[in-house]
């Protein structure tokens, strides 16, 4: 355990109850969170999501394997960080709750761990809030905000109330940055978030890639990307290993570096990956 991440006696922050605003959900357009839920075998998806997801599966893109690999990486990364003594998690792009959610893994190791979930999809938030209802300690907070406006996200009073920004925080951007286009300015977003975190904080990223796609399957992949662009609420930007590595600026990678998701500190439960669908890595701010 490192000295700057030593466990502190955490008292849950005194949060006001979450305002339950009426949620307007458009189920006629596919949404990445619900498509991902479908890939993982979940039930929280609608016909438009299933149709878009099936279109993608029919292109031969390895999205189901990618989703399983990614989800398993998330669990191993949270376990690794918890074992390093990290007690605060800012998980942006939470997704519809599935097996091994961040708070379950982190609080399973340290019940005092604080987790803030952030997503811009109201349906994700509805599910997440239902899961947290009666969870007890007030150490898990759910916030609606957009990664594309990191300053507003950081200023959110519920984020501020739940996390102590003078102590190390794990910033989790797991399978969300590929929904940030180059026009959205991912480097600036990461800089704003990274600058707000103190020394000893960690950055966790997994990111979809087409690096391993061979020429004959390129057209299939282009079709899959086109489905996200034309049929869902968020375009998909797959990136190379070199480009994803740039996102760790200021957060030197811990071993084994940025690797295919299945190769990041695998354990007995890690699903075998047959191809490279996502890169995964964890960096630590010196
Ligand atoms: C593929 S899911 C990943 C879920 C989870 N992190 C995991 O890896 O299992 C991507 C999530 O990012 C969310 N998302 C996409 N764009 C976002 C944005 N601009 N701001 C916040 N969340 C976003 C989606 O709503 C979805 O829940």
Sheet bearing the most strands, described?
7 strands, mixed
Q: How many DSSP-defined strands?
A: 7
Total tally of structural domains: 1
Within the CATH hierarchy, at the fold level, what is the topology? Answer: Rossmann fold
CATH homologous superfamily - what is it? Vaccinia Virus protein VP39
| Spans where pLDDT lies below 50 across 5 or more residues | 1-17
The 3D shape can be described as globular
Number of helices: 10
User: What is the subunit organization of this protein?
Assistant: single chain
* Order of secondary-structure elements: HHHEHEHEHHEHEHHEE
Produce the secondary structure layout.
Elements: H1 32-39, H2 47-58, H3 63-83, E1 88-92, H4 102-109, E2 114-119, H5 122-132, E3 140-144, H6 150-155, H7 157-162, E4 170-174, H8 186-195, E5 202-208, H9 215-231, H10 241-246, E6 259-260, E7 278-284
Parallel strand pairs: 1-2, 1-4, 2-3, 4-5
Antiparallel strand pairs: 5-7, 6-7
Helix pairs in contact: 1-2, 2-9, 3-4
The structure holds S-adenosylmethionine.
Could you explain how this protein is built, in words?
The protein is α/β, with parallel strands linked by helices and 286 residues long. The protein has a single domain, classed as Rossmann fold (3-Layer(aba) Sandwich), CATH 3.40.50. Helix content is 37%, strand content 13%. The chain has helices at 32-39, 47-58, 63-83, 102-109, 122-132, 150-155, 157-162, 186-195, 215-231, 241-246, and strands at residues 88-92, 114-119, 140-144, 170-174, 202-208, 259-260, 278-284. Strands 3-2-1-4-5-7-6 form a seven-stranded mixed β-sheet. α5 links the parallel β2 (114-119) and β3 (140-144). α1 packs across α2 (47-58) and α3 runs parallel beside α4 (102-109). It is globular, with a radius of gyration of 18 Å. The model is unreliable at 1-17 (pLDDT under 50). The structure holds S-adenosylmethionine. S-adenosylmethionine is lined by residues 32-33, 36, 70-71, 74, 92-95, 119-121, 124, 146-148, 174-176, 179, 234.
């Amino acid at each position: 355990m490192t000295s700057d991440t030593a466990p502190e006696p955490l008292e849950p922050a005194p949060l006001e109850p979450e305002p339950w605003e009426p949620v307007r959900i458009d189920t006629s357009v596919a949404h990445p969170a619900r498509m991902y839920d479908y890939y993982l075998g979940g039930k929280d998806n609608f016909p438009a999501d299933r149709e878009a997801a099936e279109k993608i599966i029919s292109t031969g893109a390895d999205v189901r394997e990618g989703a399983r690999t990614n989800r398993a990486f998330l669990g191993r990364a949270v376990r690794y960080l918890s074992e390093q003594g990290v007690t605060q998690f800012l998980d942006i792009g939470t997704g519809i709750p599935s097996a091994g959610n961040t708070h379950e893994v982190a609080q399973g190791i340290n019940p005092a761990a604080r987790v803030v979930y952030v997503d811009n999809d109201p349906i994700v938030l509805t599910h997440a809030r239902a899961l947290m209802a009666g969870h007890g300690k007030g150490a898990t907070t759910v916030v609606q905000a957009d990664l594309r406006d990191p300053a507003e996200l950081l200023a959110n009073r519920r984020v501020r109330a739940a996390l102590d920004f003078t102590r190390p925080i794990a910033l989790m951007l797991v399978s969300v940055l590929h929904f940030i286009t180059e026009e959205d300015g991912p480097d600036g977003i990461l800089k704003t978030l990274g600058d707000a975190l103190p020394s000893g904080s960690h950055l966790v990223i997994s990111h979809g890639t087409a690096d391993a796609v061979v020429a004959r399957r390129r057209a299939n992949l282009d079709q899959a990307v086109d489905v996200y662009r034309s049929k869902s609420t968020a375009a998909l930007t797959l990136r190379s290993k070199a480009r994803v590595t740039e996102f760790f600026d200021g957060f030197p990678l811990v071993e084994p570096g940025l690797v295919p998701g299945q190769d990041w500190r695998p354990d007995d439960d890690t699903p075998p990956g047959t191809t490279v669908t996502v890169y995964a890595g964890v960096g630590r701010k010196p």
